[in-house]
């Protein structure tokens, strides 16, 4: 399984990329709005210049023709861009056109296995079930990930499943266990995945004990 970082914060992206643990970044309008940058394209290009195979950028049009034109435009900015298209009739129509043009797409705001299946049928490169937002309303978000993985495998559909709207490290483990191809995680969750208090205690104790050895 691969890990993407779910943020538009360039410092966090640089740090995670330096650690070698992420192979992509997913952004959305809400994440971009949190950052100071006013030049959206410049911010995207800064991320795309990092050694990342995948950078998801959301198309904002609501009609199919607008999505198609936006996807053609955004995908021309850099080779590692994937265009996020939301689940809707317009989104399906747009992906069925641009997937034939080899533009990579991420079918986003996916909340059911049916939506994921339709995305795969029209040729989306990725579908993104939003796990946390389903959990928030007392649904089993990870079940959508599991169902999509199982269905795609059964019918040899090449669409990859990105477990999105990840809220904590246990979501990442669950996504890995059900076979998600990718989990896109917020920076704080990525850092939580690295840390363990017993590791910190162990490192400190080894260092203390070694200092005692060196005194001898
Ligand atoms: O990748 C989708 C993600 O950005 C949504 O996360 O926490 O807003 O539900 P959240």
Keywords:
216 residues, alpha/beta, 8-stranded parallel barrel
The hetero molecules present are: SN-glycerol-3-phosphate
- List segments where confidence is low: pLDDT < 50 over at least 5 consecutive residues: none
Radius of gyration: 19 Å
* Helical residue percent band: 40-55%
Biggest β-sheet: strands ordered side by side in the sheet:
1-2-3-4-5-6-7-8
Write up this protein.
The structure is a single chain. By secondary structure, the protein is α/β, with parallel strands linked by helices. The protein has helices at 10-19, 29-33, 40-48, 64-75, 89-98, 113-121, 131-136, 141-154, 169-177, 187-194, 197-215; strands spanning 2-6, 24-26, 54-58, 81-86, 105-110, 126-129, 160-163, 182-185. It is built from eleven helices and eight strands. Helix 4 crosses helix 5 and helix 6 (113-121) packs parallel to helix 8. The N and C termini lie far apart (47 Å). It binds SN-glycerol-3-phosphate (G3P).
Quick recap:
51% of the residues lie in helices and 17% in strands. The protein has eleven helices and eight strands.
Itemize the secondary structure elements and their pairings:
Blueprint: E1 2-6, H1 10-19, E2 24-26, H2 29-33, H3 40-48, E3 54-58, H4 64-75, E4 81-86, H5 89-98, E5 105-110, H6 113-121, E6 126-129, H7 131-136, H8 141-154, E7 160-163, H9 169-177, E8 182-185, H10 187-194, H11 197-215
The structure holds SN-glycerol-3-phosphate.
């Amino acid at each position: 399984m691969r890990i993407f970082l779910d943020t538009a914060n360039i410092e966090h992206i640089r740090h995670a990329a330096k650690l070698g643990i992420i192979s992509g970044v997913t952004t959305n309008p809400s994440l971009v709005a949190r950052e100071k940058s006013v030049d959206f394209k410049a911010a995207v290009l800064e991320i795309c210049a990092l050694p990342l195979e995948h950078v998801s950028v959301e198309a904002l049009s609501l009609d199919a023709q607008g999505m198609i034109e936006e996807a053609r435009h955004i995908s021309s900015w850099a080779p590692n861009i994937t265009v996020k298209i939301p689940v809707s009739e317009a989104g399906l129509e747009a992906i069925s056109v641009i997937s034939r043009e080899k533009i990579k797409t991420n079918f986003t705001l996916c909340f059911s296995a049916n939506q994921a299946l339709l995305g795969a049928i029209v040729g989306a490169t990725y579908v993104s079930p939003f796990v946390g937002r389903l959990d928030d309303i007392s649904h089993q978000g990870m079940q959508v990930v599991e169902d999509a993985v199982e269905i795609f495998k059964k019918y040899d559909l090449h669409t990859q499943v990105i477990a999105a709207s990840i809220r904590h490290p246990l979501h990442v483990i669950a996504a890995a266990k059900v076979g998600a191809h990718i989990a896109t995680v917020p920076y704080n969750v990525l850092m939580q995945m690295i840390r363990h208090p017993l590791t910190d205690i162990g490192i400190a104790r080894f260092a203390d004990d070694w200092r005692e050895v060196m005194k001898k």
